[in-house]
Amino acid sequence: MTPAAPTVRTTCPYCGVGCGVRAEARDGALIAVSGDPDHPANRGRLCVKGSALADTVGRDGRLLAPTVRGREVSWATALDAVAEGFAGTLREHGPESVAMYLSGQLLTEDYYVANKLMKGFVGSANVDTNSRLCMASAVVAHQRAFGEDVVPCDYDDLERCELAVLVGSNAAWAHPVLFQRLTARRERGELKIVVVDPRRTATCEAADLHLALRPGSDVALFNGLLAHLARAGAVDREFVHRCTTGFDAALAAARDDAAGLLRETGLTRQAVATFFRWFAATPRTVTLFSQGVNQAGNGTDKANAIINCHLATGRIGRAGTGPFSLTGQPNAMGGREVGGMASQLAAHGDFSPASRERVGRFWKAPAMARAPGLKAVALFEAVARGEVKAIWIMGTNPVVSLPRADAVRDALRRCPLVVVSDCVALTDTTACADVLLPAAGWGEKDGTVTNSERRISRQRPFAAAPGLARPDWWIVSQVARRLGFEEAFAYTGAPQIFREHAALTAFENGGARHLDLGGLADLTDAQYDAMGPVQWPCPADGSAGRGERPFADGRFYHADARARLVAVRHRPPRQRPGAGHPFVLNTGRLRDQWHTMTRTGTAPRLFGHTESPVVQLAAEDAARLGVDAGDLVEIGNGGGRVMALAEPGGEVTPGHLFMPMHWCEPFTGNGRVGVLVAPATDPESGQPESKHAAVTVRPQAVGAWLRLASRRPLPAALLMAPVSYWTRLPTRSGWRYEVALQAAADVDDYLAGLCAAQPHDNRIEYSDSSEAGRRLLLERQGAIEMVAFCAPGRGALPAASFAADVLDGALEQAPWRLLAGPESLDADCSRLVCTCFGVSEERILQAIAAGASSAEDLGRRLECGTNCGSCVPELKALIAREESSTERAVRHAV
Ligand code: SF4
């Protein structure tokens, strides 16, 4: 009998929920993952992305060896090239000419070493992170209100609150495990959920009230709420008097805004009144917010408007209350702890003389940075201007994710030295690198991450890193030593770095900062290895700091120990629609993908839910533009253009669009939505306004559509003109493509190109009477090499998953039957709703038609929704849709 595979307890590498994972690995291969029932963040649950972790690890697509200008080299040669490049740039142009751009995917130990090198030894604070795009506004709002970047809530507050207000947060998709904790309580009648979001998202399926406010009008709404709380006598005068300052000014600003509340938000009086009444009447209220608040030209003010309402009511520092910023990335919070942002120093330090002196003395640093460095958008603008001449990018993909992404790519191509460390070989950013450094990935590296509730969890290795890949902390330390800083970077492992980080948080702290990990500063290697999830603060005296939870004693971290209510006023978004660009584009996340798909994009089943770059638009707008579902449209502005398939419906209001931010060059041509986002940033946080781009929409004529699956990737020439749109997704045994050709007359040449590119010894081809109607199957030694379906209209094609099933051998039929299409085989090619159990929309609709009337009922019949639960909101939406169409039919018949 095969012995049971050893289980390693680690942490999911995707979102800021920070779920504990039990990974079963044998011989370095991940066999299975499951949620860790003992981890307080998830208590055994995982969402679809976490459940699919085993599909996303492995050697495919990994960066395995260092390269310098395309040539594979040894580590010594690559590290010398980086050190000499940085040293030469520093000598000639000074510390402001070099930069690092880091990632919330890095472990705290990696982050710490990179920041120490730049801010203490190179003397430059030009170290920023992709967390700037995610929650920088929340960080600044916390600092303004509390005097320190402290998230005041715990996940347990979600079990204790009676009202959960989700603002700009599609938690059903972006933080699914937390969302399920809320919905479980709502189903037991224990709390109400209010969703504040311009878009009708999956999260709204569980809302008692959805406030579809006008984009960017959150300050007006929460100022209106503050004014109402004062009117209704719901202000906690004693708390305000004892623990805060700024109430009168904040209330005056709120009252000024309140007059225009309905006009600015576009909400009905009744909806606003209901929200205000519920909030005022429910002491146990948690307000959760994420990207819809942060990614705005006034994101910091939005967050402070929310925090003001909690401070005014004293709903902070107590169980079941508080403003709760949900972090996007797995270690955004850890990055904040070690000063990962250009505006911070390590251990929640800033650039005041006292803070610089303290951190510098602890590090024995020869060259402390004197002032905050360039924030992400400004940093890449400085690269474009030639002011930053050497940049090191770690574990992130700014050529996709930053505003004006095309300009970022151009800037990197012109930059004299671009170093990229990544675990993935082919990304839009690695394509711009002079030096590529292979980094260890999830399951190979050792360290810690901190989730949204300040809980530090271990990521533990269960496999050796492939090829020459090394941990990021090791790579940075090696370069630091070559720059002459041997002693300060003589690290031998992650535990040593963690101890130093923990000691710095406690160094001359004395209660001045909530971030105090002094109790972890003396862990032995074995204790570090065995460390369970631990929430900060954890000071050396073993106490829980200045209270059971942040601010439980009513004391904050400004010099006078009082919190600040910040007077904020409604300001419209920086980018506004106009005659040239009449639509507002909102960007966001898909349920089954993560970031720029570098990891989730390797798992075929994670494309079962959404397989194309689609743009949601209102049905009225689609009708006016003459666009049907699935039609190709170009979305553009001065930053560039994006090609996407139209998805008309009721999710967005007229004049508004929504498109996911994940798509990038390895998976589609012209799908990077970042090119459309303007470099307009919040003046306080530097976070870009990624939720509000002014764009045009132009329907595109397509002469012919193809869906094909191929054992080999198509050559680049087959993805260029006359191709106007393409997607390339993995299948179990190759790749599947969707391609749009500009003219039907291009079809024959294109098919000839396909045949020339694919080795084959047998070719089966059908044509129909239409100009573009073709079906083609290529075989080699009896195995299918490629299958292609071509039609003048997209709707006439078999589903893309059918071509993949043909290639993967899932349909054991003669070639001619396969070419006849799914109808002749009675194959189900509808979209996957439940990714965990592979349950399609068609099967769910059949079950509903057969009498299934609840998500639980569907789960009993088909298993859907019974593992991670991410699809439950969609199951409910399908039931509601089918019930209402049945009702309509009955009414019509009557
Ligand atoms: Fe990972 Fe999903 Fe948990 Fe986020 S909610 S940490 S993606 S399993």
List the topology elements.
Blueprint: E1 7-11, E2 20-26, E3 29-35, H1 48-51, E4 67-68, E5 71-72, H2 75-93, E6 98-102, H3 108-122, E7 127-129, H4 136-146, H5 156-160, E8 163-167, H6 171-174, H7 176-187, E9 192-196, E10 209-211, H8 218-231, H9 237-243, E11 244-245, H10 247-258, H11 261-265, H12 269-281, E12 285-289, H13 291-294, H14 299-312, E13 322-325, H15 332-337, H16 353-363, H17 376-384, E14 390-394, H18 398-401, H19 405-414, E15 417-422, E16 435-438, E17 447-450, E18 455-459, H20 472-482, H21 494-506, H22 525-530, E19 534-535, E20 563-564, E21 583-588, E22 614-618, H23 619-625, E23 632-637, E24 640-649, E25 656-660, E26 693-699, E27 704-710, E28 723-730, E29 735-741, H24 747-757, E30 762-767, E31 774-780, E32 783-791, H25 800-808, H26 815-819, H27 822-825, E33 832-834, E34 839-840, H28 841-849, H29 855-862, H30 872-893
Parallel strand pairs: 6-7, 6-14, 8-9, 8-12, 9-10, 11-20, 12-13, 14-15, 15-16, 21-25, 22-24
Antiparallel strand pairs: 1-2, 2-3, 4-5, 4-16, 17-18, 18-19, 21-26, 22-25, 23-24, 23-26, 27-29, 27-32, 28-29, 30-31, 31-32, 33-34
The structure holds iron/sulfur cluster (SF4).
